[in-house]
Amino acid sequence: MRSDVILLGHGSGGKLSHELLDELIVPALSGLGQSDQNDAAVLAAQQGLLAFTTDSYVVDPIFFPGGNIGDLAIHGTVNDLAMVGARPIAISVGLIIEEGLAVHELRAILESMRAASRQAGVAIVTGDTKVVPRGKADKIFINTSGIGVIDHDVQISGSNARVGDKILINGTIGDHGMAVLASREGLQLESCITTDSAPLNNMVEVLVEKLGNQLHALRDPTRGGVATTLKEIAVQSRVEITLQETLLPINFAVAGACGILGLDPLFVANEGKLLAFVAPEAAEQALSIMLSHVHGKHAAIIGEVTSTAAGKVRLRTAIGGLRAIEMLAGEQLPRIC
Amino acid sequence: MKHQKEYRDPELARLQLQAIRQAVAGFDRTITLMEVCGTHTMAIYQHGIRSLLPEQIRLVSGPGCPVCVTPVGYVDQAVALSRRPNTIIASFGDMVRVPGSSSNLLQEQARGATIKIVYSPLDAVNLAERTPGADVVFLGVGFETTAPTVAAAILTAAQKDLDNFYVLCSHKTMPGPMTTLAGDPEIQVDGYLCPAHVSAIIGANAYQPLVDAYQVPCVVTGFEPLDMLQGVLMLARQVVAGVARVETQYSRVVKPEGNPKARKILYQVFETCAARWRGIGDIPDSGLQLRPDYHRFDAARQLPVAIEPSIEHQGCLCGEILKGKLRPKDCPLFRTTCTPEDPVGACMVSSEGTCAAEYKYGG
After folding, report:
1. Among A246, B64, B129, B289, which is 20 to 30 Å from B242 by CA?
2. What is the pLDDT of residue A333?
3. What share of chain B is helix, strand, coil (3-state, %, to 5)?
4. pLDDT given for residue A330 in this prediction
5. Same-domain pairing of B218 and B331
6. Same structural domain, B273 and B329
7. What are the sequence ranges of the domains in chain A?
8. What number is the ipTM of this complex?
């Protein structure tokens, strides 16, 4: 690359575009067998059902403790596929870059996308790059779409939670949202909060394999946090969920920062967490699967499905009180993913 | 934070609740206790405290949320200022969604105004220093807890000799509205859970005149669940015994004389004035305005703008809710026309507002 910043010309389709693709993007993102530069990727037809998802990433700042917009964009799409029990097989990457982005920042983002896709075992098979004039985007926006294969007959759905199910989470709540907020606002916290952004497909594969139809529902509590996700499932499955405040795993620094800023960690975003609804007899097994996984060290059973009072989520507080949990109206925090 | 678990101990909570039930056993009427602090409002909902107390004790929320008591005209003035060229409005997050007569700051931002959310008034001073070509207007809203930090920001701006930093001031003080409400026969407050942070500044002694005038018990209370249960217990005991005095439950933070140093900074920059409280009206000596020495930082004086005539939304019962006369669910707009996404009244906007708390955590 002759320039150390991205120029409008890098999106022109001409020589500079080819330089960007050949020297930076293709070497970073391809290499998993799909390097033909045709207009579309060609994939082998698959047995079973296909899952297809898309998400756009506009986080500010683009680099935050523990991650950046690049690995976040891979993890998010991989996890969306995993939450329906799909094994991710292909991802597309659309980059919208603001003129003036430093080439070394773009390189770092692309390299973490490659590392994230390798870790998740999924290939980036196609992509697109546009450059827009300064001020028309904020450094870089990324869209990823993903295709996954469901090659088992386990029914996993947000409408499948049943009375008696135990609810598990694979670790601490609210890390990603607070990491981004603290880094964006330059909050001086005693200890650093890092994002939990991580691919969950491997853990889900094990859960599906070991638990089979005892695994009823999965969802990743991203924007809106654990509270909003549980409310969605309570509505979809027409059940009542009761959480125990004392069982919620919350990082000490996250709890402190939330306390200072008046935020409720239950509503703060996660990017490497899943909520699993599991038949009660399989709950301990599910917990030990999570605990033995690299992304499940602080897993816990946090509540259960208590009745068929449709759409209700309640929290039993530490002092024994009971309160309702409603869906978040607007964003607690802007642009966290 | 380090001791948070100790203030949420289930066994101690059980003992406190037992003591509260014993204290009110045999007492023949409902005891109405009012808190006047947004953080208390939130804590009551967040910990499910109402679900634990005996039915005889009724907790009502008073005018304790600074955003909620800010009149519509103030928002209109902020909206008008945001439309000035080269003007940046710096504000705490909650204010930007408060509806004015015909617009709010978020809508103005979408139309091109520059609105910056800050976490400290000093951030606004730094912003002014970094952007010499623009006028930075900080929205000064809040009680004695916030006002000293705004005073410190103004002193910093003066020290740096900034000529582009302004405050649109709508600060309010306690316990003026508590005295007004204590004298309102329609409300019948039996006791006040006095605010924690405000009292840390003004001191527990500040409530003595209120107690003397209206014989209403006052207990300065902390925010943790056990603090609040103990505050309720102390008030219930006073009410049942028929006495009225100032007590401090939150003695680990609040002193009788408060924090004279913070008050000194506060009154170096501000002086007391009459203030308009949304839903309550004008209360003498319950607001803060900039002293003449600091008028050059006063957005209202230095940046004249045409302000639209204030219109309160018809049917919004924020005023009655702020006085503790009605609960959010008594308002026909609650959850129908008025939601956190599209709030009609300020009580639904602020995260510390009674309506927002009830919407989020249920009744």
Report:
1. B64
2. 63
3. 45, 20, 40
4. 62
5. no
6. no
7. 8-150, 166-324
8. 0.71
What's the number of domains chain B is made of? 2
CB nearest to B47's CB, from A256, A319, A330: A319
Residue B13 lies in a domain: no
Q: Chain B within 8 Å of A330 (Cβ-Cβ)?
A: yes
Residue in A262, A264, A318 nearest the CB of B10: A318
Instruction: Note whether B95 and B147 are same-domain residues.
Output: yes
Q: Domain A8-150 has what CATH class?
A: alpha beta
Contact (CB<8Å) A321/B49: yes
Same domain, B205 and B252: yes
Q: Is the pLDDT of residue B139 over 80?
A: yes
Tokens matching residue B158: 């003066």
Q: Considering only CB atoms, which chain B residues are within 8 Å of A187? A: 119
| Alpha carbon of A255: minimum distance to chain B alpha carbons (Å) | 8
From residue A144, alpha-carbon distances to A63, A78, A84, A274, B205 in Å are 18, 9, 17, 20, 61
* SS3 state at B207: helix
CB < 8 Å from B in window 243-302 of A? 246, 252, 255-256, 259, 261-262, 264
Residues B125 and B266 in one domain: yes
| CA A57 – CA A47 distance, rounded (Å) | 31
Task: Find, in chain A, the residue whose alpha carbon is nearest to that of B335.
Answer: A329
Residues B190 and B281 in one domain: yes
Tokens of A177: 């949202």
Average pLDDT over residues B283-293: 96
Q: pTM here?
A: 0.81
Whether a cis peptide bond, with omega within 30° of 0, leads into A61 is: yes
How many whole angstroms separate alpha carbon B42 and alpha carbon B48?
10
Tell me whether residues B48 and A259 touch, CB distance under 8 A.
Answer: no
Question: Does residue B270 register a pLDDT over 60?
Answer: yes
Using one digit for the tens of pLDDT, what is the confidence trace for A316-331? Answer: 999 999 998 887 766 6
User: Min CA distance, A326 vs chain B (Å)?
Assistant: 5
Indicate if the pLDDT at residue B228 is higher than 60. Answer: yes
pLDDT for res A158: 95
Label residue B138 by pLDDT band (50, 70, 90).
very high
CA–CA separation, B131 and B164 (whole Å): 9
Per-residue pLDDT tens over the stretch B3-12: 677 888 889 9
- Is B22 within the bounds of a domain? no
Q: Looking at residue B346, what is its pLDDT?
A: 78
Q: How far is B193 from chain A (nearest CA, A)?
A: 19
Does B3 map to a domain? Answer: no
Nearest-neighbour CA in chain A from B145: distance (Å): 14
Contact A329 B45 (CB under 8 A): no
Residues B132, B65 within the same domain: yes
Write out chain B residues lying below 8 Å of A264, CB-based: 46
List the domain range (segments joined by +) for residue B351. 318-361
Q: Which residues pair with A149 in a beta bridge?
A: A50, A87
Q: Assess contact for B203 and B144: CB atoms under 8 A.
A: no
pLDDT score, position A33: 47
pLDDT at A31: 58
Q: Return the CATH number at B75.
A: 3.40.50.11740
B250 burial level (CB within 10 Å; 0-12, 13-18, 19+) = buried
Which candidate from A316, A323, A330 shows the least CB-CB separation from B45?
A: A323
Evaluate whether residue B5 is within a structural domain: no
- What CATH superfamily classification does A166-324 receive? PurM-like C-terminal domain (3.90.650.10)
Q: Is A319 in CB contact (< 8 Å) with chain B?
A: yes
B241 and B345 in a single domain? The answer is no
Q: Among A240, A242, A323, A327, which would you mutate to test the B interface (most chain B Cβ atoms within 10 Å of its Cβ)?
A: A323
Q: How far apart are CA A91 and CA A80, in angstroms?
A: 12
Question: Cβ contact (<8 Å) for B52 and A319?
Answer: yes
